[in-house]
Amino acid sequence: FSNTYRMIEQDDFDIHTRLHTIVRGEDEAAMVESVGLALVKLPDVLNRLKPDIMIVHGDRFDALALATSAALMNIRILHIEGGEVSGTIDDSIRHAITKLAHYHVCCTRSAEQHLIAMCEDHNRILLAGCPSYDKLLSAKNKDYMSIIRMWLGEDVKTRDYIVALQHPVTTDIKHSIKMFELTLDALISFNKRTLVLFPNVDAGDKEMVRVMRKKGIEHHPNFRAVKHVPFDQFIQLVAHAGCMIGNSSCGVREVGAFGTPVINLGTRQTGRETGENVLHVRDADTQDKILHALQLQFGKQYPCSKIYGDGNAVPRILKFLKSIDLKEPLQKKFCFPPVKDNISQDIDHILETQSALAVDLGGTNLRVAIVSMKVNIL
Known about the structure:
alpha/beta; 2 domains; 6-stranded parallel sheet; 4-stranded parallel sheet; kinase
């Protein structure tokens, strides 16, 4: 949500083209239409830009359109954050982009091993860490209290508020909407100041927003409901929160850099590597279970985790980009494990044996033989 392209302009980049590709809708079809619309618009842009390399990040459905377009137009693809494991359709999209990409930047050693297991060329994989950790681990904003007060009110103290960020699970929309309803009920009962971010643009997001409005979250004295928080400010909000709750990858990845307690709900991040700051509630099927998790986690302080990076990812990625030889063959090669030779025929093999098939059609008997070029029956 919001005009996040302004963050790109603030970093002094000129934006060549802006495309509107997101189709609003209530179901999975809207995501398919969004990908289709992007596929229609992207070829013209790529023909004009003629990029040497397309950098594609993450596992969102709009990234799939970028990777597909670049692959079909013979543009080299560098994929960032491949090889990770999570839940929902994002998992399949991430691995699909991996198969389309020519080069890979991964964040963890496990992700690197997954890419190798998926038959990707080890020489084209860089273990760099997560680029966002470069910013997280260098975030030193002494005036973080003004940010907290701006978003949560003047009377809020550090470690005494909650950040909630929950998205639809596209493979089970009905259950994820019910889980969100239980989460809000638990947060209302827990009675702490809470910043609730709107869900992302996935099938089911509109229904989740309706649940928020049905429960009066936007007008509740303990809640602040917002569509977008600038990244630099969001870092400070989660770094000084008493707890983060939801099912965003941010909770199990970036927030670990601060040791902030996290409650991860449901299956959306199943398989993600996490630090000890994350408490999983896989079956978030009752309000009491979520409430109990809040009572266990709120206000704790855990050791900072560097599973996803050490703050030096960007220099490694730049060095990797510079090392790419644009003259090497574009055709992607997979490193398949050795398999037994097939039994199909090959003309070179036949010529090497220097033999011929001889058929005698005379008389009453049919005789067939393999005869060498020296007229010996083999």
